[in-house]
Amino acid sequence: MDRKITLAYGDGGELAHKLIQQIFVSAFGNRDASRFDASFLSLKSGEIAVTTDSFVVKPLFFPGGDIGKIAVSGTVNDLAVAGAVPLCLTAGFIIEEGFPLADLRKIVRSLADEAAGAGVEVVAGDTKVVEKGGADGVYINTTGVGLKRSEGAIDPSRIAPGDDILISGPIGDHGIAILAARGELGLMTELQSDCAPLNKMIDAVIEAGCDVKMMRDPTRGGIATTLVEIAEDFHATFELSESRLPVRDAVRGACDILGFDPMYLANEGKVVMVVAHEDTQKALNAMRTFSEGESAAVIGQVTGKGIGQLLLETPLGSKRRLHRLSGMMLPRIC
Question: Residues 67, 167: one domain?
Answer without folding.
Answer: no
